[in-house]
């Protein structure tokens, strides 16, 4: 038996395993010195465990505390925020592991381990991250079970089995509360300016989308209510960029002249002459990955149906807050409708014709010349597209451009990605006196063969142009389609080689789409991830309808009754296990083998009397079975030593003696 204050060696071993598992995935989200501190603490504690090193002295522990505080201030310049708080927690976890002396210290390490394990969900809510968090919690619980072992046990795996049993008993109740409990907003918010996001930024410079073209990460997924439109119609608009400073395109700040026109739940304030609705509507639901901005993605002319979603006059769909987690929203679009066909306000026309002074003089001169020679804006557009079609190349590796980037592209380089064509086209149109703007978003997507939903990836990022024509309003023009029409009809992966796109990601499964089994594996994993996002992370979107279907309504008495009944049913295995374990706790391990020994003696004609002491029973059976007297006394001696002497006896010896004991039944005749 161990003293109550002493840490079992098995408990220390499981603490080291749990520490390694919980800290490892956080290393890529924190400064390098934080996992370095954790590694030092782990190595030192391992040395203490093996008896090679002693515990650190007080001055060293104080120095490590001040070193961690200084590192936090230098790395983050503050102690408030997601990353500094997680870094502080990992530092405390590491130093407490190094400092622990007694079992109560180890219990504090365990409780810190639970907090550290679940912090991974603050950075990543994918299915893989959830499984990893569950694994980390399992190991932390195993260390807790190991710390409560009251005797030496060579079965090092036993705490893990206990942990799995405990978590398995808690699983039904967790599922019940997940299904029924309402989703509440956070009690507080933690700013996370350093949180890594992927996707487009809120501005566009030549080369930005080219970099996105080398990533296969999911941007968003789309579930259509009806038939999926053809790929050529899938232009997912995100940002409308109207201002140009000579290098970078940004959104215009319209203020009261053309800003927000609709929030969900409000009537649209479009003027009748602004929108002409026509064509069949297209309804769909978007599951958007976090990207750090407040813009959303939709097809042309969206009508919103989800809470906390707004629409700007330039058709930018927005959220009131930055998208720092998966977001699901529902939209209906009118792809054939016209916008501003009756005219464009003077202030809007001025913005959509704005050009910086002394910028790209060659393009400016050519645009004015062609505008004078063209009988109509449509003819000018056709002439520019023919120019692109004749001499230009579509590539992911364009040449670098100088100060007058549009001139360099149109007259010297003549090779680029979609943003090069869109930016040069819009500049040309404005120089010719035609209002124009850039739209940045995505084009196309991959339809999952089993799920039927559309997956849009970062390499589907695209930029195109919109020009305003009298009587037609805003008209979409994609100059990339003039140079590389196959880019619009198929994905970038079909147009470019895998090496060209994924040169920096050799193990990306998307590059092996031609290998059937690897492609099936990729699609299967993506389908699991999508179901996780839809049914677990997005459960609050379907919870009311699902509960109403199950319960026949959402009245409080229905929900309360279901919660009570389901909780009782889910706790039945726990109650049964607790009753069974309480019975086992009263039974010493040696008792099981002694009871087997008594049953064999009973079958041989010497049953044990109620309350009969072991030695008196052995003496009586030795008289009845004289040939087995020595074996009976030996087994009884082994059992009594194990059962009643402190730290004596050998359970394995008793087990072997009992299993080898045989006695023939007495013939009474």
What topology does this entry show?
Blueprint: H1 9-23, H2 33-49, H3 58-76, H4 82-99, H5 103-118, H6 120-123, H7 127-147, H8 158-180, E1 203-205, H9 208-212, E2 218-224, E3 235-241, E4 243-244, E5 248-250, E6 260-263, E7 275-276, E8 282-288, E9 302-304, E10 310-312, E11 317-318, E12 327-333, E13 338-339, H10 346-352, H11 361-373, H12 377-391, E14 393-394, H13 405-413, E15 415-416, H14 418-431, E16 436-443, E17 446-447, E18 454-457, E19 461-469, E20 473-477, H15 479-483, H16 485-489, H17 492-495, H18 498-501, H19 516-537, H20 539-551, H21 556-585, H22 589-603, H23 614-624, H24 629-644, H25 651-660
Parallel strand pairs: 14-15
Antiparallel strand pairs: 1-5, 2-8, 2-18, 3-16, 4-5, 6-10, 7-13, 8-12, 9-12, 10-11, 16-19, 17-18, 19-20
Helix pairs in contact: 1-2, 1-4, 1-5, 1-7, 2-4, 3-4, 4-5, 5-7, 7-8, 8-21, 11-14, 13-14, 22-24, 22-25, 23-24, 24-25
Give a count of the beta strands, DSSP E runs of length 2 or more: 20
Major sheet: size, sense and barrel closure?
6 strands, antiparallel
CA(first)-CA(last) distance: 51 Å
Cross-sheet strand order for the largest sheet: 9-12-8-2-18-17
Q: Count helical runs.
A: 25
Q: How confident overall, as mean pLDDT? A: 84
Helical percent range?
40-55%
Tell me the count of domains. 3
Question: What overall form do the CA principal axes indicate?
Answer: elongated
Question: Can you tell me the residue ranges where pLDDT is under 50 for at least 5 consecutive residues?
Answer: 193-197
- Structural class designation: alpha+beta
């Amino acid at each position: 038996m161990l003293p109550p204050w002493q840490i079992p060696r098995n408990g220390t071993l499981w603490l080291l395993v749990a520490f390694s598992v919980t800290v490892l995935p956080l290393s890529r989200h924190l400064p390098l010195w934080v996992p370095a501190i954790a590694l030092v603490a782990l190595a030192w504690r391992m040395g203490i465990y093996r008896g090679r090193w002693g515990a650190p002295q007080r001055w060293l522990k104080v120095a490590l505390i001040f070193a961690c505080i200084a590192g936090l201030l230098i790395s983050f310049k503050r102690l408030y925020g997601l990353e500094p708080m997680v870094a502080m927690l990992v530092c405390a976890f590491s130093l407490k592991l190094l400092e622990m002396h007694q079992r109560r210290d180890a219990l504090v390490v365990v409780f810190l381990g639970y907090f550290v394990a679940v912090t991974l969900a603050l950075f990543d809510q994918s299915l893989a991250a959830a499984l990893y968090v569950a694994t980390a919690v399992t190991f932390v619980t195993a260390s807790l079970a190991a710390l409560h072992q009251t005797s030496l046990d060579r079965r090092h795996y036993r705490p893990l089995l206990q942990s799995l049993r405990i978590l398995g008993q808690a699983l039904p109740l967790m599922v019940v509360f997940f299904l029924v409990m309402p989703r509440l907003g956070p009690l507080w918010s933690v700013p996370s300016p350093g949180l890594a996001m992927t996707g487009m930024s809120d501005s566009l410079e030549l080369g930005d989308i080219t970099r996105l073209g080398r990533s296969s990460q999911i941007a968003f997924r789309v579930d259509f209510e009806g038939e999926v439109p053809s790929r050529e119609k899938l232009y997912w608009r995100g940002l409308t960029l109207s201002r140009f400073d000579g290098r970078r395109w940004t959104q215009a700040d319209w203020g009261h002249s053309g800003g927000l026109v609709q929030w969900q739940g409000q009537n649209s304030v479009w003027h009748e002459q602004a929108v002409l609705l026509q064509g069949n509507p297209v309804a769909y639901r978007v599951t958007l990955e976090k990207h750090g901005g407040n813009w959303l993605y939709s097809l042309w002319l969206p009508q919103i149906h989800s809470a906390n979603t707004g629409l700007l006059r330039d058709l930018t769909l927005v959220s009131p807050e930055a998208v720092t987690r998966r977001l699901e929203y529902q939209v209906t679009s009118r792809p054939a409708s016209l916008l501003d066909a009756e005219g464009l306000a003077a202030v809007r026309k001025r913005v959509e014709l704005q050009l910086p002074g002394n910028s790209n003089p060659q393009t400016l001169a050519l645009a004015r010349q062609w505008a004078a020679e063209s009988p109509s804006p449509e003819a000018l557009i056709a002439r520019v597209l023919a120019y692109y079609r004749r001499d230009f190349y579509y590539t992911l590796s364009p040449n670098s451009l100088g100060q007058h980037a549009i001139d360099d592209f149109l007259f010297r380089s003549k090779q680029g990605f979609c943003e090069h064509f869109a930016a040069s086209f819009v500049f040309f149109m404005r120089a010719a006196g035609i209002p124009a703007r850039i739209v940045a978003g995505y084009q196309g997507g991959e339809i999952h063969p089993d799920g039927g939903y559309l997956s849009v990836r970062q390499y589907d990022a695209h930029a195109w142009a919109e020009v305003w024509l009298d009587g037609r309003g805003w008209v979409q023009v994609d100059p990339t389609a003039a140079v590389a029409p196959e880019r619009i009809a198929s994905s970038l992966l079909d147009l470019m080689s895998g090496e060209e796109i994924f040169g920096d990601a050799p193990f990306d499964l998307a590059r092996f789409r031609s290998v059937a089994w690897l492609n099936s594996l990729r699609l299967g994993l993506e389908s699991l991830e999508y179901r996780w996002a839809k049914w677990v992370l997005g459960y609050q979107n379907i919870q009311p309808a699902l509960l109403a279907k199950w319960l026949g309504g959402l009245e409080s008495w229905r929900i309360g009754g279901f919660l009570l009944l389901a909780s009782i049913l889910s706790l039945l295995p726990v109650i049964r296990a607790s009753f069974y374990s309480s019975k086992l706790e009263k039974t010493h391990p040696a008792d099981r083998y002694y009871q087997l020994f008594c049953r064999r003696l009973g079958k041989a004609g010497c049953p044990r009397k109620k309350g009969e002491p072991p030695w008196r029973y052995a003496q009586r059976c030795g008289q009845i079975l004289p040939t087995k007297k020595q074996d009976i006394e030996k087994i009884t001696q082994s059992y009594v030593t194990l059962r009643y002497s402190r730290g004596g006896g050998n359970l394995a010896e008793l087990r072997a003696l009992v299993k080898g004991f045989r006695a023939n039944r007495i013939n009474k005749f």
